[in-house]
Amino acid sequence: MKVPDPFELAVRQNALDREVAGHRTELALRKHKKLTSSPLGFFRGSARLFYEILAENRSLTLDAGPSGHVVGDMHLENVGAYRTDSDDVVFDLNDFDDATTAPVWVDKLRLAVSVLLAGRSFQATAVESLALASDLLAAYDEAVGGAPPPTLPKPIVDLCDRARKRSRKELLDMRAPLEAGGRRFSRGERYLDLDRAEIAALPSIIDSYRRALGPRLPAHAASWRVVDAAHRIAGNGSLGRARIALLVADESGTERLFEFKEAAPAAPEAFFGPSGVAPASRVVKAASSLVKSPPRQLVALDDTPLGALIGRKLCPEEDKLDLARLSVGPKLFNVARVVGNVLGHAHRRDIGPFATPNDHDDLLDRAVYLAGIFESAYLAYSRSTFVAAVAHA
Asked: Minimal CA–CA distance to 119: which of 373, 368, 319, 342?
């Protein structure tokens, strides 16, 4: 096996960052800051690098099991609360940018690696982190076998309650506060101005989105007028790609928030090859297969002036799982079991029940090895930032 050099991996990740950000230097710097925040932050933002490592080290792969739709960039925080088209607030998978078809073990392996890398944030020992990963994988197996979802622990109940109680006005006030003359996205940490090409493309994108929604089209949608639009700064791996936040108002005065996000090739394609499906359609198809109810008004726009985009409504009832405040203990183990259960049910929903290994030894051995690789790559990647900072001091 070729042992990956952490400094070569750091150089490669920097190149990938520049490739995604393109001419937006500020976004490349923002992404670099996020990826140097923690080993888990680096892992979350380097999904393509993960699959390139697997492609170069085939001995890290597992025996071929069932294939189906996978999340692709699965990690411990790739879940959250959101409102669906059926008006329910659910806790489920909520990011499908890198979703595609592949052997389901890739999601399990990435999830286990993310747990081991998150140990520092949880103040967990190595033994505790391994126990957490093992427990999570057991919950996955139970879900694949048909076990019902467990009772949601308090951190997840609180997350869903906050999302459920947040009003549209609260969401608007957070994202686009009232200023002289009306609402506007606050430029700075979360929003930047669009470039000319993006502004020019807005009418075409909005028309395509209205057509794609079909029967889900809101009342008075024909009278939508643009109040404001900006580049939304969010995510880890996707930070730097086109991501338009749109505020519209209709003739009744109702204001709505939407997002149009660039759809790019899925990270697993670095290992498994092209999916053969248009990027935006791939994302929406995977979401519809993996979760019972995808996020609200999610549609694929495969042909716009800006390329393939994923459109969706931004709802007040929406919140990602943030494990930063949890430390090792019963609450964390219960949350991890729920995440494992959610992923297991997603795979079962897509491909039906299937046999799982008698133990997770092979998977955990590979997860330990990969966690070590990404910990080293994280330090090398952060080192490049440190050296640059000293040079300019």
From this structure: 368
Cβ within 8 Å of residue 286, ≥6 positions away: 69, 70, 71, 96, 99, 100, 101
Structure tokens at 108: 């399990």
CB 258 within 8 A of CB 210: no
CB 198 within 8 A of CB 244: yes
Chain-centroid distance of CA 233 in Å reads 14
Q: Which residues contact 266 (CB under 8 A, 6 or more apart)?
A: 72, 97, 98, 99, 100, 275, 279, 282
Per-position pLDDT tens, the chain of length 393: 678 999 999 999 999 998 888 777 788 888 888 999 999 999 999 999 999 999 999 999 998 689 999 999 999 989 988 888 777 788 899 899 999 999 999 999 999 999 999 887 778 889 999 999 999 999 999 999 999 888 888 888 888 888 788 788 888 888 899 887 789 999 988 999 999 999 999 999 999 999 999 999 988 999 999 999 999 998 888 888 899 999 999 999 899 999 999 999 999 999 999 999 999 999 999 999 999 888 888 999 999 999 999 999 987 656 777 766 655 566 788 888 999 999 999 999 999 999 988 889 999 999 999 999 999 999 999 987 655 544 444
SS3 235: coil
Supply the pTM of this predicted model. 0.92
Of the candidates 28, 49, 39, the one whose C-alpha atom is nearest the C-alpha of residue 76 is: 39
H or E element that contains 201: helix 196-213
CA-based angle 255:96:328, to the nearest 5? 100
φ/ψ (deg, to 5) at 89: -95, 120
Give the ranges where 255-360 is alpha helix by DSSP (H): 269-272, 279-290, 330-351
Residue 316 has what DSSP assignment?
S
Cα–Cα dist 98/273, whole Å: 13
Residue 130, C-beta contacts closer than 8 angstroms, at least 6 positions apart:
116, 364, 368
Q: How far apart are CA 68 and CA 350, in angstroms?
A: 7
